[in-house]
Amino acid sequence: HRGEEVPADTTIVTQTHYLDLMKIYKRFHNDFDEVFFVVSSRGDSEEMRINPKLCEYNNVLCLEYEDLIYANRSQLETMVQKLTAIFQDRFGYFFGENSSLLGSESQMNAIQRLEEMDKAVASLSSQPASVIDKKFGVHGGHRSN
Questions:
Q1: Is the dihedral of CA 78, 68, 136, 58 positive or negative?
Q2: What Rg value do the Cα atoms of the chain yield, rounded?
Q3: How far apart are CA 47 and CA 55, in angstroms?
Q4: At a CB cut-off of 8 Å and minimum separation 6, what does 56 contact?
Q5: pLDDT greater than 80 at residue 25
Q6: Residue 26, pLDDT score
Q7: Model pTM score
Q8: Do 131 and 124 form a contact (C-beta atoms < 8 A)?
Q9: pLDDT (tens digit, 9 = 90+) per residue, 31-85?
Q10: CA 85 – CA 136 distance, rounded (Å)
Q11: Could you give the CA distance from residue 62 to residue 64 in angstroms, rounded to a whole number?
Q12: What DSSP line would sit under 7-20, residue for residue?
């Protein structure tokens, strides 16, 4: 699975460093009921910050990078629970306020997926950025959490 990019239209969830959300939206909105963006700002540099105007769109959730950091399983579980509540609050208009989509089974699946992604990131840490894990969309050279 490594070494190739995965076309974004072959998956429901994708990860990207590309921040032209309007262009992404225009490309994919006809293929789905809705296109949601969860984006994070990092540090003080203008190029690493999300334009606050984008955060006003109903389908965009803006977070701080620090809210996504965890060092162990307990912190990971807490982070997933917190983000699930934030996600439900932000996008409940679409999924329904009492949607089981974000229930405990989905949270456990998210935790498992993040643990698997962490393993993929660790295995690619010494690889060049051109090496990509197709399942998670992560590339070589990243540092592990």
A1: positive
A2: 16
A3: 16
A4: none
A5: yes
A6: 92
A7: 0.76
A8: yes
A9: 888 888 999 988 888 888 888 998 999 999 999 999 999 999 999 999 999 998 8
A10: 23
A11: 7
A12: PGGG-SS---S---
